[in-house]
Specification:
This protein has helices spanning about 15-20, 35-45, 50-70. It is mainly α. The termini are far apart. The mean pLDDT is about 85. It has one domain.
Length: about 70
Amino acid sequence: MNAGDELDIPELGDEFFKNAKVRPGFVRKYSVLLDQDVYEWLQEQPTGLERATQLLREQMRAERERNSSAE
């Protein structure tokens, strides 16, 4: 890249940031087997399958909290 090449890159406008999503940390894709009814329910959620990550994170935090208070 030559000096000044970045001047050719268009600035990101309000429209881009209006629809942007912040994701915590590094995201990897994994395959998970789900029962058909669970998959269909997740598909119906406003955030789609991203809701699965949110539900699992909530469960993970609750279990960690229970484990740390049991010690």
